[in-house]
Here is the input.
Amino acid sequence: MENIVFYFSGTGNSLKVAKAISNELENCDIFSMAKQFSLTKHYDSIGFVYPTYYWGLPKRVIEFIESIDFGNNKDAYYYSIATYGGLAGNTVYQMYELLFNRHGIKLNFGQKLQMFANYVVAYDMSEKIDKITKKSNKKLVPIIDSIKMRKNNNINKLTKAFESMRKEFIEKVSSMDKDFNVNNNCIGCGICKEVCPVKNIEMVNNKPQYKHHCEQCVACIQFCPQKAINYKEITQKRRRYTNPEINYRELSEYNNK
Ligand SMILES: Cc1cc2nc3c(=O)[nH]c(=O)nc-3n(C[C@H](O)[C@H](O)[C@H](O)COP(=O)(O)O)c2cc1C
Ligand code: SF4
Ligand code: SF4
Here is the structure.
């Protein structure tokens, strides 16, 4: 019996969840949704774990689901977990709709899981990391149990709100890196390049340069040990967050698997 869980993750929350699921299932591989994939084996369960961006799926996750070849796996158990910071909107429903419309696959189980809100560009992230991590770890247990028991649930569209803001985000996200700046505290360590899930960073003269196919996952801002990367003049004084259980080496190893 083989299982597979696909993840997309900027700051490690979604990778942490994918790892926790994989640890509880037999023979469960983990793969990044930043790459293209064709399933050549037969799987018992196929899962997706990803962050919520603007109340929906990250652009790269949409592209992944649109392009994946599921092979001979229409009868697998499909589940989807959206991590989010405060308001998940329609992110689980979007996965349900995309799988069905594109592949005729019915998502068996979909859940959202509140974790630390990492969008440093939009707020100062002043919440207590320990407290939120403990809470989300607790909520993760019954989610994994449901997956192990192959539970089904109903996934409904919740609201039409925010659709225009989301559309605007998806249209402009690739070039949002034009608003990133790198200050003189940069020591040329290359961590930003290593953690970028979509290889949008090149090191030129020991400084990161952006290639304008950004996902706005904020990993480069959050993992930089020097706090040298900022968004406009907004993030300079804000703290940084990465999932306490995922360091940059591990994230980079999984992303490059
Ligand atoms: C560009 C961006 C947009 C986000 N939009 C939302 C949102 O609409 N609703 C929400 O609850 N959280 C939002 N978040 C927070 C993330 O979904 C949340 O922190 C997630 O767990 C991060 O996962 P990761 O560490 O795997 O990248 C956003 C984060 C980013 C970077
Ligand atoms: S992670 Fe920070 S210090 Fe390291 S190269 Fe990137 S910007 Fe410079
Ligand atoms: S450039 Fe930075 S924000 Fe954009 S996808 Fe890469 S790590 Fe994420």
Observations:
- Residues 166-255 form a domain with the Alpha-Beta Plaits fold (CATH 3.30.70.20).
- The chain has two domains: 3-148, 166-255.
